[in-house]
Amino acid sequence: MTIKLAVAGGNRGARFDQVLGGLEDQIELVAICDPSDEVRSRWTDGRPDLKAYSQFEDMVEDPGIDAIFIATPMLLHAGQALTALNAGKHVLSEVIAAATLDECHALVETVEKTGLTYMMAENYCYRREAMMIKNMADQNVFGDLTYAEGAYIHDCRDLMFNDDLTRTWRGGGTGITQSTRGNGYPTHSLGPVAQWLGINRGDRLARTTTFVTKSAARQEWARSVFPEGHVDAQDAAWAEFTDSATTLIETEQGRVICLRKDSASPRPHNMALHTLQGTRGAYMSGRFDGEQPLVWLDGVSTGVSPANFGYKGMARPSGQSNETHPEWQPLRDLSDKYEHPYWKELGEEAIQAGHGGGDYFVMYDFARAVTGEIEPPIDVYDAVTWSSIFPISIENVKRNGEPLDIPDFRNR
Question: In Å, what is the CA distance from 161 to each residue of 183, 230, 303, 374?
Fold first, then answer.
């Protein structure tokens, strides 16, 4: 079966054009939707058979479309996904899936009602390191998992304003945005961690709180862009924004997750910052481009932990005589044994796509899910659970950090 796919959102969607070319046996691109004449023209240039729509509502009525990839601005995702599902289309949605708890519940109910495939395109889950760590966690290599961290730190201040100095959706031009006082973009940091911990597959996110900083770097940027006296150059214009948000999540099984989201602080971009701690080892991602991800595994890596050898007369397990301090080793040292099968088989092709290969595998798995070969690896329950951190975090901040329960969307 070849899936006839439409792309909604021609700018972000264009990053997948190369991916679709590599999956032409599974997916046929049949339509593009974007309100911009220029964007639509770029897509149709040299492709006379590609249908082009300016209105999403018109496109979903096309009987020649099986599935829609929603790559529009974030606040449109849930509404467009609901429209597409109710029109009988399978949906692959960019992150985040929803911006309110009502949208989260509506997505679950509609997917259950229609029986159609819904998947969220969280490409960070498909990065090579993330998939390898998941493979190791699934095999209990780290022991009983207790703690994890994730961070998405990407200075996006240059995406806040259009050339005419109006605000983009990222700058708050359409209401709440990624930088509203909460954790507005949690899934890049949370998605891989949730998969490693088996969230919605044995454990679940139970409660959360979020704290935010003031909006300082964002204000400085605005003052440098706007003329003196402009309303958006005033501090009051950014009072409802934050530079950095820190979220804590407790799981039902007593694990703790710490997330950071920062899209305003000036610093080099790092694609993914993650750590994982278990009773038999730990993982730490590279902190900057070029730094290797590291692991330490009891009985595999060099040394023992604890290594407080200066304290004499302390009880230790019998036979532990190796007085060598533990040392991190490159994750790549273990790739022969723990590399994920996807990366062994398709890694060379995937790495040509965006986001460290993640864009390729997102589309690859969506095609497999639509044809019934697999269940969606990031299904509607994952999508809304991870995305619900956004609206809950806004409420956390309003309540001065009061922890709040995270809904169990599967067992409502």
Answer: 21, 13, 52, 41
pLDDT in tens, 249-265: 999 999 999 999 999 99
Which pLDDT band holds residue 314 (cuts at 50, 70, 90)? confident
254: helix, coil or strand?
A: coil
- Kindly report whether the peptide bond that precedes residue 249 is cis, defined as omega within 30 degrees of 0: no
Pairwise CA distance, residues 36 & 41, whole Å: 9
Q: Is the peptide bond before 376 cis (omega within 30 degrees of 0)?
A: no
In angstroms, the CA 312 to CA 315 distance is: 9
For 209-252, write each residue's pLDDT tens digit.
999 999 999 999 999 999 988 999 998 999 999 999 999 999 99
Q: Three-state SS for 52? A: strand
Q: What is the pLDDT of residue 170?
A: 86
Distance CA 245, CA 180 (A): 10
Give DSSP secondary structure letters for 120-164: E--GGGGSHHHHHHHHHHHTTTT-SEEEEEEEEE---GGGSB-TT
- Which of 27, 29, 28, 85 has its CA nearest to residue 56? 85
**Which residues are within 8 A (CB) of 257 and not within 5 positions of it... i.e. 6 or more apart?**
147, 148, 149, 150, 190, 193, 197, 205, 247, 248, 249, 250, 251
The angle at the Cα of 224, spanning 219 to 225, to the nearest 5 degrees, equals 100
Which conformational region is residue 57 in: left (phi greater than 0), alpha (psi within -120 to 50 degrees), or beta? alpha
Q: What is the largest CA-CA distance in the chain?
A: 80
How far is the C-alpha of 199 from the C-alpha of 379, rounded, in Å?
A: 12
Q: How far is CA 367 from CA 26, 46, 62, 67, in A?
A: 6, 25, 20, 10
Helix extents (H) in 164-269: 187-197, 217-225
For 267, phi and psi rounded to 5 degrees?
-175, 160
* 9 backbone φψ class: left, alpha, beta (φ>0; ψ -120 to 50): left
Long-range contacts, 285-294 (Cβ 8 Å, 24+): 285/129, 292/330, 292/331, 292/332, 293/129, 293/330, 293/331, 293/332, 294/328, 294/329, 294/330, 294/331
- pLDDT band at residue 342 using 50, 70 and 90 as cut-offs: very high
